[in-house]
């Protein structure tokens, strides 16, 4: 079944790409639409250079795409459903509810599903 092998490898590559907390937060920041690097950096409380470093592989794998406007680069998700997919994945971390960390998961779920997040901390 070579097609299963190919698809499994592609999915594993995607999961490796997403396997960084900053990249997950970045995707969730872009869920509501296009943002420039400065806006993302401010929302995530990270240096703009770090945001750019994470955007590069996401762009290379076509998770995000960019648009230039003068000196500014604006980024958006190519498939916004990936952000919803990450929220659904929170169900798999909910086992931590039993370990007393459930409040953190619920706080993140609320942030990631809000229409206008105030802070993506």
TrEMBL record:
GO molecular function: DNA binding; DNA-binding transcription factor activity
Segments forming domain HTH arsR-type: 3-97
Stretches that traverse the bilayer: none
Keyword hit for Glycoprotein: no
PROSITE patterns given in the database record: HTH_ARSR_2
Keywords per UniProt: DNA-binding, Transcription, Transcription regulation
One matching Pfam family: HTH_5
Protein name: Regulatory protein ArsR
């Amino acid at each position: 079944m070579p097609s299963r092998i190919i698809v499994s490898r592609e999915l594993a590559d995607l999961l490796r790409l997403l396997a960084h907390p900053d990249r997950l937060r970045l995707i969730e920041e872009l869920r509501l639409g296009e943002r420039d690097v400065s806006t993302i950096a401010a929302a995530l409380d990270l240096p703009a250079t770090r945001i750019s470093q994470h955007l590069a592989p996401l762009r290379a794998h076509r998770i995000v795409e960019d648009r230039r406007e003068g000196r500014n680069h604006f980024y958006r998700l190519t498939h916004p459903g990936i952000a919803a997919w990450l929220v659904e994945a929170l169900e798999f971390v909910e086992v931590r509810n039993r370990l007393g960390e459930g409040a953190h998961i619920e706080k993140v779920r609320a942030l990631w599903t809000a229409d206008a997040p105030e802070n993506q901390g």
